[in-house]
Amino acid sequence: MAGSDLKRLRERMVREQIEARGVQDQRVLAAMRKVPRHLFVQEAMTSHAYSDDALPIGSGQTISQPYIVALMSELLEVEPGMTVLEIGTGSGYQAAVLAEMGCEVFTVERQRTLYSKARERLLEMRYFKVRCKLDDGTMGWPEEAPFDRIIVTAGGPSVPEPLVDQLADSGILIMPVGRSRRSQELVMLRQKDGVVTEERFGGVAFVDLVGEHGW
Ligand code: SAH
């Protein structure tokens, strides 16, 4: 598919799937207009890269639906220069969107194949502000903590305690939490002066967060 066609599809994705559903943060919209999502999916999926769906990325995992990436990026209320910890690198797409928004991104993936591919892809695309780690992300990244923002892109039974401990003051954490696998609610924690408050933002369906503090 020609580059200009892909750009047109990407523009349409932002207009019809994201703006039309109420995402207004201009930095989120600009980042999603810029990041070439088709380079984060398997080649056979190129023509589907801008459709309103999650897509397989190998190893039984998925790249999230564009709207969900936009919604979570907006809910994070990021400012340029902030540090963001992401759990679940997957394809690296969400990390690229946050980097495009000016954040310094620390992303953790537990599956070696996905980790290696995403790391290589992000370097090739010159996202030098993203650092990747192969590990159980439910333990966070203690050496780099605290983080201004934390985003978990896999669904778990509860927010892992180490992540709450690694959230900076005035920090925001967002994560799909649910009693059953593949059906969760988007939960946001805000930390202010040592007090953590919780808000919920409706149903989502993410792949499982596994590991020490996962399923
Ligand atoms: N954010 C990704 C999509 C994430 S899919 C993107 O933009 O493409 C969820 C990912 O979380 C999968 O790759 C899965 O392997 C990973 N994952 C699940 N449990 C994990 C854990 N404990 N630590 C790190 N990664 C984990």
Automatic annotation (TrEMBL):
Sorted UniProt keywords: Cytoplasm, Methyltransferase, S-adenosyl-L-methionine, Transferase
Pfam families attached to this UniProt entry: PCMT
Coiled coil regions in record: none
Subcellular compartments: Cytoplasm
GO biological process per UniProt: methylation
CDD domains in the record: AdoMet_MTases
EC number: 2.1.1.77
InterPro entries per UniProt: PCMT, SAM-dependent_MTases_sf
Catalytic activity: [protein]-L-isoaspartate + S-adenosyl-L-methionine = [protein]-L-isoaspartate alpha-methyl ester + S-adenosyl-L-homocysteine
GO molecular function: protein-L-isoaspartate (D-aspartate) O-methyltransferase activity
Active site positions, chain numbering: S64
Enzyme class label: transferase
Family: Belongs to the methyltransferase superfamily. L-isoaspartyl/D-aspartyl protein methyltransferase family.
Function: Catalyzes the methyl esterification of L-isoaspartyl residues in peptides and proteins that result from spontaneous decomposition of normal L-aspartyl and L-asparaginyl residues. It plays a role in the repair and/or degradation of damaged proteins.
Protein name: Protein-L-isoaspartate O-methyltransferase
Species name: Oceanidesulfovibrio marinus
Gene it is expressed from: pcm
